TrEMBL record:
Protein's name according to its UniProt entry: Glutaredoxin-like protein NrdH
Family designation: Belongs to the glutaredoxin family.
Keyword Cell membrane: no
Task of the protein: Electron transport system for the ribonucleotide reductase system NrdEF.
Keywords in alphabetical order: Disulfide bond, Electron transport, Plasmid, Redox-active center, Transport
Source organism (scientific name): Ponticoccus alexandrii
Glutaredoxin domain segment(s): 3-61
NAD is among the record's keywords: no
CDD domains given in the database record: NrdH (cd02976)
PANTHER family found in the cross-reference section: GLUTAREDOXIN (PTHR34386), GLUTAREDOXIN-LIKE PROTEIN NRDH (PTHR34386:SF1)
One Pfam family linked to the record: Glutaredoxin
InterPro entries assigned: GlrX_NrdH, Glutaredoxin, Grx-like_ET, Thioredoxin-like_sf
Length: 73
């Protein structure tokens, strides 16, 4: 399953999310929303207005969600 974390600089929840994924040994791609207009369109199209947005297969969520991250491992 492909996992992508859409984040922005100086985002506490983004850092917590990527640290939790790394600690569990889960591979992911990191996309900076401030540098990628297409990525910003994607996450706003999904209805999100906050970072991070995690897309894991058919599932997606926003914010630091340890419960969702634990389901990935």
């Amino acid at each position: 399953m492909s996992i992508t974390v859409y984040s922005k600089p100086a985002c506490v929840q983004c850092t917590a999310t990527t640290r939790a994924l790394t600690a569990r040994g889960i591979d992911f791609d990191l996309v900076d929303l401030t540098e990628d207009d297409a990525a910003m369109e994607l996450v706003t199209g999904l209805g999100y207005r906050q970072a991070p947005v995690v897309v894991a297969g058919d599932e997606h969520w926003a914010g630091f969600r340890p419960d969702m991250i634990s389901r990935l491992s």
